[in-house]
Structures are given as structure tokens and as C-alpha cells.
Design a protein that fits this description.
With about 950 residues, the chain is α/β, with parallel strands linked by helices. It has 6 domains: about 210 residues, P-loop containing nucleotide triphosphate hydrolases (Rossmann fold), CATH 3.40.50.300; about 160 residues, P-loop containing nucleotide triphosphate hydrolases (Rossmann fold, 3-Layer(aba) Sandwich), CATH 3.40.50.300; about 80 residues, Arc Repressor Mutant, subunit A; about 55 residues, no CATH class; about 200 residues, no CATH class; about 140 residues, no CATH class. It contains 40 helices and 29 strands. A 7-stranded parallel beta sheet has the order 3-4-2-5-6-1-7, sandwiched between helices. A 6-stranded parallel beta sheet has the order 8-13-12-9-11-10, with helices on both faces. Strand 17 and strand 18 form a beta hairpin. It is globular and about 95 Å long. The C terminus is likely disordered. GO terms for molecular function: ATP binding; ATP hydrolysis activity; catalytic activity, acting on DNA; DNA binding; helicase activity. It comes from Halostagnicola larsenii XH-48. This is Helicase. Keywords: ATP-binding, DNA damage, DNA repair, DNA-binding, Helicase, Hydrolase, Isomerase, Nucleotide-binding, Plasmid.
């Protein structure tokens, strides 16, 4: 043993060193060797190391040492963790240390009993483990504030997770408020690998000096990328699993990897995939559990414990397992499909090994060329330590609104300047302008959350302050969660997000949860409950909703473009995929088959004699109304460019332009009047400096902005003032709150989370300077077709939608619709679609020019009947006339198509004009358009 191996422990006092011997700590772990010296010296320190590498003890040993030497009167140290369900293993370990060292360690969170809270206030423990939200509550309690005055150390666990969220922005102000109380205190951050450690360090300390101690994770990670080869066994398995042989090969490969290891975590990117894959393992009767955030707490704890005891060979999980939930030793990690980000891969694979500083091993199982190229780029970047930066929320105004009432509730009458200076001390708010701060204050005053006395420049409490503070301890949005109950037993199965229920769930729909198939029997919006019954037939459809996709960063997408740029010329020169694969194997961790399979897409593309899309070349392809820009710029840049194109082309043509994006493509559904040259003109002529204002204009009436605005305005206490009785429509909400701090913050949040204006502007500059080539071609290309359509949930059973089509048919037949005669404009009736005649006609004048309108479209009726018309009324009237023309030509079929969600006359005409073999195809096309609308409705007025 070399001296350096034990030198870290010499910085600790004799009592703690005795405890180390008792606990069996003979040699410090890598993070302990690095971090204990500066921590013992009292430095504010950010410790960056993988999960399971002893970070908790790294932070707490010097803290315990200090508390033993100088026992506190109140709370000596706070250990703040973002985990809602506090890690039981971590609690047990900390309590052992406390017991041995004669220090009291206790936990306080939302489920702590009133009796226990009272005890903590009367006799504060030396170390308190808590959450960011509970700290907010503690800062307002009189006796607790006295106890907090003694805090000398604060440890923030999973600080990388908090730095990129509004929870973290809130906590950063909470730490400044704590420092106002306790004076200077040591701040210690524990983080997974991040791309900008200095920025995260500044976030932790509020801009004060910060020592950064980082373990090089990339060199300690062994990741391989594999796309399975279809075997005879997969052909046999496909029948049992009721799926394709290709999908069966994914299940079989994961099964084999699990069999080769003792304990495996299988990470997937969405709950949908977790459930779909889980159902296949259930079918094969394999001891593999499912773990994700929509399962009940009891179900999650059950599988965690069974995995830890060795009763399960593997856990199939989402990001629910990225944070430090203890499930015992993990010796391998499988990532199913690309992890989308380098940081995510390192966090996930980092769960394997590390108990004795061994290498973490993982396998990425890929499903198609995009997936493989992306995973290869991410695996290489992980090995080199090229990690994405944490995306800190700069100046979130709803967080400012959330904190001001806490100030006055805890401190009483407060000068505006004092509150402003404390908030500006937090790193995300260092650039907050005083005028903006006062605007937020005025809004809170109008909503009677606080009293703003402008003559004295003071903030006071009101009757609503206390109630607001305790109802708004969290910055996690108040989005409804629906409980899922088995209608027969009444037992809760899990939960569904409000967005899923609103957009996709309907009686009769089939979905997967807990690895089993369920049919929705009833949706109770009053009780936020979905009642379901189990079904034996596994031919139900996996829900197409995937939640918020993990965005692929610009740099990863660019490397995929670079890969194409390296392989493309070789294939064009006559090299075969096998030879190119051998060359790439030297740089990327994949076998020959995986690389050859991915390259086969590029081979097919070369055969079309079309230019290869690369990081330096955009290829625009067109077929019919579909225009695809092959552009490897990542999710947020492509989303930004796509919205800009959709908005400007829509203005030019006077029609809506549909939009779908992925990290490598921007797909536009254009009216016939939009030529490919028009798309090119927008790219070449739009001023890069105008991108932000174009997008903001397009957002003004979008449902996406309204959804965020409702969440943000709740934090300002504004909704109750505008809502009155009943639900506030999106249009009314947007109109009522325009030109307020809430509106400004909602726009900022959309731009921060979904868009990248700077990069999109730079892409336009590169196009306009000629450094980025743009090529156009007719027809679809293999690379262009390799996007979402080919990447659609591969785990859905074949012929899975028979029951779904039946449900869509029944739902539409029961939907209501307005029929309006556009000839005499006198006759109007609201009726069920199922009651409409095959060829509707007006009973007043006999005309067959009958418009079929949504049941809430009374303003369209008014526009048709109006004599004087503005531009908006003209647009609505033209829409009604197009609808009437379709009904006159196609009768009830047109009525059915236009009764679907988000299907107007234009899309209805597309559906009707397709040649089909049967009626099911008609409803399948309707369903496809409905889903397209659900995905893209944020871009439609």
C-alpha cells in the first residue's frame, strides 16, 4: 500500500479514524483520496464522481470530524438530496456513523410526522437529512430558524440534477437565505460527471471560490454498442412474443446479457418502452422487474428489495434509477436504444461496479442506423470525457415570485433592497435587474400574496402570504396525475400523467403498465382516476405517446453527421460497408455486424446518387407535400429552425404547415403552393438576428405556451384572480396575461428548454456565407426515411391496432359536430356524427353545401353569417366553405374525417382522396392524422 492510499484519512481526527477501522474502511476510495483534504481544510468543494463510489462518506467524514470537535447547539449540518423517496441505505449508513460518533442524525421531509418535527425544533439533531422543498418550509419556522443559525456545513447531493432545474434555482436562493441566518458556511456539492464543472461549482457557492475535485469517469467505463443479428431462435421467439423477429432479437440479446451477469440494470428512455419490454420478459417468465416513476411507491420498493436480495436477475428502469437509489451491487448495465446524451450514459453505466474502484461495464443495444450512429458517437465522447454542460435556468421569474413571500413570512417587514440583494446573491439570479424584480413584486401585490408599500419601499405580509408559502414549497409543476385502478379489485396499478390522459387516453384504449395489458373502462376527471380492466390478448397497442423526449445535443448530432461524411465518400468510391466497418472499429466500440448494419443505410443512400447529408451539408428532399431537411443539428436547433420555417412558410401560403423534428431531420407538411425553392429562400434570406422574434410571434397563441403559462402564473398567485369560476380557456389565459412577468417567464422557459436560437442563427449564417452547403433533390432518400417512422416503437405487436381502430370508429360516431348550411346560413344543428345522414342537406333551402364544424366553433358560424368581415372572419368563412365543399362531394365520410381531433378540411381531403381496400384503412389514416396533430399542436394556431 502506498502512502497516498491512506494519506486522505490522516486529515481526520482520532475518533473518526477509529470509526473508519470499525466500519472496515482500510483504504480510501478515489473520491475520498481527492476530496477529503480540501474538505477538511473547510473549502467550498464540488466532488464529481460516479454513483456508488462512496461520495456520501467523502462529504460527510470531514463534516462529522468537525462536529465531533465542535458540537453544535442547533443543526450543525444539512444534507440536502433531491430524491423524493430518501435513500434508505444512505440513511442507515449515516445513522451508523452518528451513533458511533455520538452525533444525532435525523431525517425531515414531507412524510415526517408532526410529532417528529416538533422534537426536531425543540432539540435539533446535529445532522439533518432533508429535501430542497423541506428546507423552504424550515426557513419560515421561528424555532427552526433559531436552530438553523448554527449550521456550519451544507451538503448538496446530486447537484448536477438540481443545477439544471427550477428546483435548483429555488434552492440556490434558499442557500443565500440560510447564509443570511447562519453566516459563512461550508458548501459541499456531490455531482455526477458534467461538462462544465466550474459553472456547477459557481451554482453551488453563489459565485464564491470553489475547489473542484473530479474523478475521470470516462477512462473507467467500458461500453460496447451492439445491434443483434436475427437468428433462427428469434424467428421462433417472434411467434411467442407476437412481434417481429427483429424485435425478438433485441429481447433475446438482453436476455443473454442478463444471463451472463449476476445483477443487471436495463435502462430505457421512456416508461412506454419499459412497459413494452417488461411485457415481453413477463411472457418469457424471466425474473426481471420493472421500475419507473408511474408505478406506486409500494411497487417500486418491492422490486428494489427483490433485486437487492437476488430474487430478480435484472431491473428494467427509466431515469428513476439514475439517482442514488440503493439496489445493492450492480455488475453490468444495459442501455436499450441510444441514451441520447453523454452525461446520461455515464450516469447509467456508472451504476455498475465502483464498489472497489473497478471498471463500470455496459452494453448499448441499438435498433436502427440513426440509433447506432448516435450511440457510437456518445460512447466515444463518454470515453474521452466530452460531456454536455448543465443547463442552468438563468433568472426564472416564477422562482423569484416563489421566494419573495417566503422572505416576508420568515422575516416580517422587509426592505425591498434587502430581498433583492439576497436573491441576486444566488448564481442563477446574479443578472436579475431591479426593475424586473419590482415588476414581479407588483404582480404579487396585485394578487394579494404580499403587500408592497412603495412609499416606504417595504414588503409586508398579507392574509394570503402564509397560505401561499405552504402551498408552494415546490417548483415541480402542479400537473395532475391520474391514478390507475383495476376496476375489478379496486387496487391501484400505477399512475398516468395528465398530458397522456388528455391527449391519448379514451375508453376502450389499450395500454401497458407494470408489464401487463389494460383496457380503459372509464376516466373520472373529477377524481383524477382511470379505471381499467386487465386483458389477456397481448395484441393491444402500445401507447404512441412518449412524454418529453430526451433531447439529443448539437455536438452528438454533429458527430453523426461527421460519421456520414467519413463513410459516404468511401462508399461512393466503391468501398463496401464491410471494409468501412473495419476502419470505424478502430475508433468506435462496436462489433463488425453492428457497424455494417448501420452503414447499409448509407450504402443504400449512395446508390440513389443523391448527395450525402453531413455536418457540412443539408440535403432537402421532397415528395408530394412532404419536405424533409436532413440536418444533423440536434433536437433543439432543429426544433428552432423547424418552427421558424413552419411560421414563415405558413404566412407566405396562408395555410398551416405541419412540423415534426428529430435530431437529424426537419419534416414539413406543406400546402401544394409551397415550392422547395420557397424553403430554400427562407433559409437564405431570413435575417439570423430575427429568429427569436419570429418564434415568439409564432408562440403567442399556441397551446404549448398556454400550458406553461398556467403553471408559471400559479406560482405568482395569478390564476385565481383571472380564472373566476370554471376552467380558463387557453385564448383567454394568453390574452389576460400578455405583457406580464408571467408571460415573459413562460416565453423564457420555452426558449430555455425546447429551443436553441443561438445555434439556429449560426446555421443560417453558415448557409448564407456558403460554409454550409444546401442541396435539393426530388423523392425520398434512405437517410431521409430513417427518422421517426422507422424508429416508431419497435416493441408494438404486429397487427396490434384492430381494437384501437374499433375504438376510434366508436368514439368519432359518438362525437358531436355542428352542421351549418353555408347557402342560406339559417340552418344550424349540433348532433352526434353517428346520426348524420349519408348525404346531409339543409331542411330550410335543400342545399347540400353543409359545413361540418367542431362543436365549440360558434365563432365560425358567426363569421359565416356576418356581413362585414375582418381578415380573421374571412379566414374562418373560407374554412367553413372548404368544409362544405368536401361534405357536398363526399357526404358523411367527410363529416367523419372532420370530426377527428385536429383534422381540418385540408387534412380531411388528404384522408378521403387516398385509395383504400377497406374502411379500417380510412380510420387508420384518421388516427395517424390525430397523432400528428397531438405531436405538433404547439405549432398550430
Amino acid at each position: 500500500m502506498i502512502d497516498g492510499d491512506v494519506a486522505a484519512f490522516t486529515h481526520l481526527g482520532e475518533t473518526v479514524r477509529d470509526a473508519l477501522s470499525e466500519r472496515g474502511f482500510s483504504t480510501p476510495t478515489a473520491p475520498q483520496r481527492l476530496a477529503i483534504p480540501p474538505l477538511s481544510a473547510g473549502d467550498d468543494t464540488l466532488v464529481i464522481a460516479p454513483t456508488g463510489s462512496g461520495k456520501t462518506e467523502t462529504a460527510m467524514l470531514p463534516v462529522f470530524d468537525d462536529l465531533v470537535a465542535d458540537p453544535p447547539d442547533g443543526f450543525g449540518a444539512l444534507y440536502v438530496t433531491p430524491l423524493r423517496a430518501l435513500n434508505r441505505d444512505m440513511r442507515d449508513r449515516l445513522e451508523w456513523w452518528g451513533e458511533y460518533l455520538g452525533l444525532e442524525v435525523d431525517v425531515r421531509h414531507g412524510d415526517t410526522t408532526q410529532y417528529q418535527r416538533g422534537k426536531q425544533a425543540e432539540n435539533p439533531p446535529d445532522v439533518l437529512v432533508t429535501t430542497p422543498e423541506t428546507l423552504q418550509a424550515m426557513l419560515t419556522g421561528e424555532r427552526l430558524r433559531e436552530a438553523l443559525e448554527d449550521v456550519s456545513h451544507v451538503v448538496i447531493d446530486e447537484v448536477h440534477e438540481l443545477a439544471a432545474s427550477k428546483r435548483g434555482a429555488q434552492l440556490s436562493i434558499g442557500l443565500e437565505r440560510l447564509e443570511d441566518l447562519a453566516g459563512s458556511m461550508q458548501r459541499i456539492g456531490l455531482s455526477a460527471t458534467v461538462g462544465d464543472p466550474r459553472e456547477v461549482g459557481q451554482f453551488l457557492t453563489g459565485g464564491r471560490p470553489c475547489t473542484i475535485q473530479e474523478i475521470d469517469v470516462g477512462s473507467n467505463v467500458d461500453v460496447s454498442v451492439r445491434e443483434p443479428e436475427v437468428t433462427d431462435e428469434d424467428e421462433r421467439l417472434s411467434g411467442k412474443l407476437m412481434t417481429s423477429a427483429e424485435t425478438a432479437s433485441h429481447v433475446r440479446l438482453i436476455r443473454d446479457i442478463v444471463a451472463d451477469h449476476e445483477s443487471t440494470l436495463i435502462f430505457v428512455n421512456t416508461r412506454q418502452t419499459a412497459e413494452a419490454l417488461g411485457s415481453r420478459f413477463t411472457e418469457l417468465e424471466l425474473p426481471i422487474g420493472v421500475h419507473h416513476g408511474s408505478l406506486s411507491k409500494e411497487a417500486r420498493i418491492d422490486v428494489e428489495d427483490r433485486f437487492k436480495r437476488g430474487e430478480l436477475d435484472a431491473l428494467l428502469c427509466t431515469s428513476s434509477m439514475e439517482l442514488g437509489i440503493d439496489v445493492g451491487r450492480v455488475d453490468h448495465v444495459v442501455q436499450y436504444q441510444s441514451p441520447r446524451q453523454v452525461a446520461r450514459l455515464l450516469q447509467r453505466v456508472g451504476r455498475a461496479g465502483h464498489r472497489r474502484d473497478e471498471v463500470s461495464s455496459g452494453t448499448v443495444v441499438t435498433t436502427r442506423p440513426d440509433d447506432t450512429f448516435e450511440a457510437l458517437a456518445i460512447a466515444r465522447r463518454a470515453r474521452e470525457g466530452e460531456v454536455e454542460p448543465a443547463s442552468i435556468h438563468e433568472g426564472s421569474l416564477d422562482v423569484v415570485a416563489n421566494q419573495i413571500p417566503g422572505f416576508v413570512q420568515s422575516r416580517g417587514s422587509t426592505f425591498v433592497e434587502d430581498a433583492y440583494e439576497t436573491i441576486r446573491g444566488a448564481y442563477p439570479f446574479r443578472d436579475l435587474g431591479e426593475e424586473t424584480f419590482r415588476d414581479v413584486l407588483s404582480e404579487l401585490h396585485r394578487n394579494r400574496i404580499v403587500w408592497f408599500d412603495e412609499s416606504e419601499d417595504r414588503i409586508e405580509t398579507t392574509g394570503g402570504t402564509w397560505q401561499y408559502v405552504y402551498a408552494n414549497l415546490s417548483m415541480i409543476p402542479d400537473e395532475a396525475t391520474y391514478e390507475v385502478h383495476d376496476i375489478a379489485s379496486g387496487k391501484q396499478i400505477g399512475t398516468l400523467d395528465e398530458r397522456f390522459v388528455v391527449n391519448f387516453a379514451a375508453p376502450g384504449e389499450i395500454f401497458v403498465q407494470r408489464g401487463e395489458m389494460w383496457r380503459i373502462a372509464e376516466i373520472d376527471d373529477d377524481e383524477d382516476e382511470v379505471k381499467v380492466s386487465p386483458i389477456e390478448d397481448p395484441a393491444g397497442e402500445i401507447p404512441s405517446w412518449i412524454g418529453q423526449e430526451i433531447p439529443v445535443p448539437y455536438d452528438v448530432a454533429q458527430e453523426v453527421g461527421e460519421l456520414r461524411g467519413v463513410a459516404g465518400p468511401q462508399l461512393e468510391a466503391g468501398a463496401d460497408a464491410s471494409g468501412v466497418a473495419r476502419e470505424l472499429a478502430g475508433r468506435y466500440p462496436a462489433d463488425h455486424h453492428t457497424l455494417s448494419e448501420a452503414l447499409s443505410q448509407l450504402e443504400d443512400h449512395v446508390e440513389t446518387e443523391t448527395a450525402m447529408p453531413t455536418r457540412d451539408r443539408i440535403v432537402i428532399e421532397r415528395q408530394g407535400r412532404t419536405v424533409v431537411l436532413n440536418a444533423p443539428f440536434g433536437h433543439t436547433t432543429n426544433e428552432t429552425l423547424g418552427r421558424m420555417l413552419s411560421s414563415l412558410l405558413g404566412q407566405q401560403s396562408g395555410s398551416s404547415v405541419g412540423l415534426e423534428t428529430d435530431p437529424y431531420r426537419i419534416e414539413l407538411e406543406c400546402p401544394g403552393s409551397v415550392a422547395t425553392s420557397d424553403v430554400l429562400d427562407v433559409l437564405e434570406e431570413t435575417d439570423p438576428d430575427h429568429v427569436e422574434s419570429i418564434l415568439e410571434l409564432g408562440l403567442k397563441r399556441s397551446d404549448a405556451l398556454a400550458f406553461r403559462l398556467s403553471q408559471v402564473s400559479a406560482k405568482f398567485g395569478a390564476l385565481k384572480r383571472w380564472q373566476g369560476s370554471g376552467r380558463l380557456s387557453n385564448d383567454r389565459l394568453l390574452s389576460a396575461l400578455e405583457d406580464t412577468p408571467m408571460y415573459e417567464e413562460s416565453i423564457r422557459e420555452v426558449f430555455h428548454e425546447d429551443l436553441d436560437v443561438d445555434r439556429a442563427s449560426r446555421v443560417l449564417e453558415a448557409i448564407q456565407s456558403g460554409s454550409l452547403e444546401v442541396v435539393t433533390t426530388r423523392g425520398r432518400t434512405p437517410v431521409g426515411l430513417g427518422g421517426r417512422s422507422s424508429g416508431k416503437e419497435l416493441l408494438a405487436p404486429e397487427n396490434a391496432d384492430a381494437s384501437v381502430i374499433k375504438t376510434v370508429r366508436e368514439r368519432i360516431q359518438n362525437d358531436r359536430i355542428i352542421l351549418l348550411c353555408t347557402h342560406c346560413t339559417e340552418w344550424k344543428v349540433k348532433t352526434k356524427v353517428g346520426r348524420v345522414r349519408e348525404q346531409p342537406e339543409c331542411p330550410e333551402c335543400g342545399s347540400t353545401r353543409i359545413a361540418a364544424l367542431n362543436p365549440w366553433a360558434e365563432e365560425v358560424v358567426d363569421a359565416v353569417r356576418a356581413q362585414e368581415k375582418d381578415d380573421e372572419q374571412k379566414s374562418m368563412t373560407e374554412r367553413a366553405y372548404r368544409s362544405a365543399s368536401l361534405v357536398q362531394s363526399h357526404g358523411k365520410q367527410a363529416v367523419i374525417a372532420m370530426a377527428a381531433r385536429g383534422v381540418g378540411p385540408h387534412n380531411a381531403a388528404q384522408i378521403i382522396n387516398k385509395l383504400r381496400e377497406n374502411e379500417d384503412e380510412f380510420y387508420r389514416d384518421i388516427l395517424s392524422k390525430e397523432r400528428q396533430y397531438a405531436r405538433t399542436q404547439a405549432f398550430w394556431d
